[in-house]
Fold:
Amino acid sequence: MKKKTDGQKTIVGKIHPDVLSFTVGKDPVLDLELAVWDCLGTAAHVTMLSKMRVKPAVLRTEERNRVVEALVDVMREVKAGKFTITESDQDVHLAVERRLTERLGELGRKVHTGRSRNDQVAVDIRLHVRDQLLGMAEEVAALAEGLVRFGRRHVKVPMVGRTHLQPAMPSSVGLWATAYAETLLDDLLLVGAAYTYNDRCPLGSAAGYGVPLPIDRALTAKLLGFSAPHHNVFHASNVRGKNEAVVLAACGQLMLSLSRLAEDLILFSMPEFGYFVLPPELCTGSSIMPQKYNPDVLELIRAKASTVLGYGTAANTILKALPGGYNRDLQETKELYMEGLRVTRSSLRIMALMADALAVRPERLRAGFTPGVFATDRALELVAGGMPFRDAYQHVRTHLDELAAADPDQALALKAHLGGTAGLDFDGYRARISDARRWTRERRKRSSAAFSALLGVTFPVA
Structure:
């Protein structure tokens, strides 16, 4: 009978089975999402090795081609769901190396020359981030477009503007909807900043101290479509984890925007308000109350915003006291970042469905207007006639009854200044959305072209 203390064999030596299980954690599952990117990083690395000027050659061109062909096959296995990562593999990097060795024999044992799993996972994550941020930017643009379309359709429908949730000033459904669209478009600036921060290649930094080989780090960065490599190899290793935290910060701001939009929709679709009607197909029922249509998806978005913000806090807390150099603590940031991205992207897609199918009840929106809503507008009207503002303020405060016949449509039409209820720039919103889509298209096209050239087949691999 095998003793529990016997080591389990892995590619990097024998490890106590309990230690192996504890340290591997969820990597065999999480790393499946990195498998294609690991193959791409390996293809770039072996291409660079084949061009390295050393004698004897580490890899000949013919050998490089065989490795890349095998990597393409592995990518096809991944797409077909046939690629697996075992506990003895520990992670995607050693699983890919195992498959290459099974297929290519001794040649597969050469691919790790001059690199570490540290720079492998760092480049895998950065390639994954790049793809995910572009997808997320497209989803933000789609939601913003839906909100702008909704706002334009109801641009002249009056809606009570609120502060402290109390009636405040005349507003419109158009102003409300496009405000959230503009919020999301501004959040895209943070997504773009995260993309730029991420757009450096760590490959070749190895364990964080470089290698005594004439490697060409600029070449691997170019092959993978990065704007440049990290210059300092220690920094390239040290910034792992922080990169994920930056991505989570962008996700957190998007989720804050979605949460506030969700809260407004929950409130304003309550019977007591009745401003909006949520699409029944996006609501859920009760197991006991037949009449119920519950805003569960909106409530979940509201809760998930806290979850994503928590992921960002957790990532930063893991990083805050780490000494320089690689530490295994960083393994924990991978799941945080992957889940943060997944939750944010799914929330964006759900909210886009909501924006496209949301109904408005103009009669309920108009019924929400009381004389006090027009008080500020009336005070400013008196100021325009020559009365000092504080005198106008006091007069209106004590004569609210004079506003009983105030017209909300007229109030909306009077605010024709930039960004007011009658001054919304819908062409400007469309232009920003088009710019965002162009930005994502150009970068996705650039990445796909680089990967296709590297692999010798069209990317994504069929």
About this structure: The first strand starts at residue 8 and ends at 10.
